[in-house]
Specification:
The chain is of the alpha/beta class. It contains 11 helices and 11 strands. It is elongated and about 65 Å long.
Amino acid sequence: MASVSFSDIFSMAKKIGKTRRPRIAVAGADDEMVLEVVSDAAAQGFAAPLLFGKEAGILALAKAKRIRLQNCEVIDVGDSASAACRAAEAAGSGEADVLMKGNVTTATLMKAALDPETGIKGSGLMSHVALLEVPGYDRMIFMSDGGIVIEPDLEQKVEILKNAVATAAALGVKMPRVALLSSIEIVNLKMKSSVDAALISKMADRGQIKGAIVDGPLAFDNAVSPEAARHKGIKSPVAGKADILIVGHADVGNVMYKAVTYLGGKGPKTAGVIVGGKVPMVVVSRADTYEARLNSIAVACVLAFRA
């Protein structure tokens, strides 16, 4: 059960780029950090950005900040709502391989992305997958869903799990170990997270979920720490060895992602991508670092041709 690192992901992205660079439709490209990171991705050879926004503003910003727009195409659009719509249409029609949020609000872009006629919504559930590479830990952790499906029901949790497994597999992690998180490791009928986790685990046991080893409920410590699992006497192929963590509420995932980011010093590396649509989608927080944004683009570019 091979693990993966961001170094591996960048190598995959660059290899794909030698054959065909994934086209990234950037909604609202008139933003300094957005321009810098997509131009960097283009310079490294794994992306071909399509920059939707006011052409004069994009070019003026690039000139002022000395950002080279090599292998980038600027598409002149009058306002942020139009930029979001045009970028989503490009991704939905196949003109672009990745959709990315630039200088537009998340709500504006999501509305365009979810348009049933022109957006990227497919037949399945779209969900967010975070990737966490923490120094001293022996593998990358995938976590879902920390941002799209706020309070998933049982059926949605199954789809979230399947999306996360497909993401990990596309990045080289075959038969990942999946932990369905709760605050306890036994079933408590008053705790929905533990009941749902037990049901999904049994579904996996009966072959209804394929391509992964699934167990739950597991508390966070039992999922990632072999020592914690031993202390509690938990015998499971997943306990202490989880590659994927499935949370029961977006609040939990959001806090986990930000705790790793802000309490882990400068060591942790992160990325996030929305999967389950026609193309991968990068929706970064305004507070996300340059590195996290570039990592997310690399992940999305690999998924565009491997998922």
